[in-house]
Design a protein that fits this description.
about 575 residues; alpha/beta; five-stranded mixed beta sheet; two-stranded parallel sheet; 7 strands; about 50% helix
Length: about 575
Amino acid sequence: MMDYLFLVGAIHLFACPFTKVEESFNLQAMHDIIFHKWNLTEYDHLEFPGVVPRTFVGPLAVTLILSPVTTLFEITNIFSTNKFVCQYLVRAALGCCVLLCFKQLQKSVKDIFGEGVALWFLVLTASQYHFMFYLSRPLPNIMALPLVLLAVTNWLKQEHVYLISYSAVAVIIFRFELAIFLGIIILSEIIYGHISFMRALKLGIISSLCALLVTVIIDSVFWNRLIWPEGEVFWFNAIMNKSSEWGTSPFLWYWYSALPRALGASITLIPAGIIGEKRTKLVTLPAAIFVFMLSFLPHKELRFIIYTFPLFNISIAVACNKMWINRHKSMTRWAASVYIVLHIIINIILSCILLRVASDNYPGGVAVSRLHRLVSPENQVHVYIDNLPAQTGVSRFTEINKNWIYNKTENLASGSTDYLIFSHLLLEAKSKYSPNLKPFTHSHEILDIIDGFSHIHFNYNSFPPFRIKSKPMIFILKKIIVSTNITENDTSTLIESAHKLVKKKRIVKKITSDNFSITENVIHSEISETVSEENLIPAENINEVNLLEPVDGVAKDSENKTFSNENSESFTDVKDM
């Protein structure tokens, strides 16, 4: 049965292979570890560190697990054909880590509550959407999830050394708020006399110091300074309370929105599980207290409480098993057994709908993939990626052509000469008449329009009684400019823009300070950071601009140099899909 859980996880992965901005740090880190190894100067986080730092321990662990496969792929040159394959691999490796730890939890449930409960536990988890959707996503929460599952497993098995050790590593390295969740579990063990306070304190201090030493050593190397990433995140979120800048939700949001969506129709069976089996109270109570305490924080996201879903499902599985076993004893119990089967079907239907919606929620990833299909790989392309595409699917794994330049520079003024150095643009817009597309009316053509999820439209006269609606979100533009007069002021702006935007070993040539035009050659060739007035051909010798041809006598050194500004939001977490 556990194999079906891996199958469901794979379906979610392949249906939504792209990632969003809150996943970008771990994803970019895994890319850089695999492809740049110890060449830290090429790492994305040094140029775009985000508001708060994140730990490299999780990405490093996943890439080490995957290293035999990635090494084989490098030897066989598979990555040179399509580097995006590697994004599937790192996500699959993370998902397998989560599911293997979940399997250990399921075995503990089987030992304590019986085989029937363990089977229902698997069925419930597979039928619900959010746990299966998130388990392969490189979020900080998911990096910590395997450790949390192992800690809960050892809690049920009453193995306190492992419980406290896994808890310390999860808290100190990955997610500080887990001190509440796992602390409640450990405190309950102390209250019930299963472990003494002094022994728990001793184990906690030793484990925490070891975890702290690991993260400080590893992350100080990657960040090039003495650092404890999760400590800085805790200070930013809890002490300075800056996480609320990324949105706030009502106090009861977890109870009326997040949990019903995460557990589906199964949430109705939690009371029955608690009433029918005394042991489920001990399992459910820490999860409920954790959700209650997190409700005081103004910034809320469903993934913040993902660790509680398995505990709630244990209680629900106990209720389902009891109703199913007793289904022949009365009509009421038979009706109850019918309900538990129907609620699983409801969960599956809800999961299919949500997965279909999610598949339309990554227009940036679709846009960059579409661009690679529309433009010949032999063409020399310099593509600008706007904020929305960068947040909804574009990553370094999607930069599959080593001869192209991918630029995600932020805050370019709409219609400015900065855009003239790009051959293609991926721009956010609602229609071709949007104000931000107006400056490109005569200089660019629309290659394609990428739609994204808009809303669900209900129509009870049709079947199914709803439709998933999409709307234009990203436009793919190609430069077609033939002749445009530019003033002397515009020339200096263009030179300055080239200096500013193209930073990594590019070359600028043939810029005149007189009246000139920009030929279609602007879209071909690459630019160097070594731009200087000495490299420029005198104006009297030339009547056109070509920003992208190499200067005579200066080596063209742009191979394998790309830009990436996956500025991973604040890494303080933003709203889930």
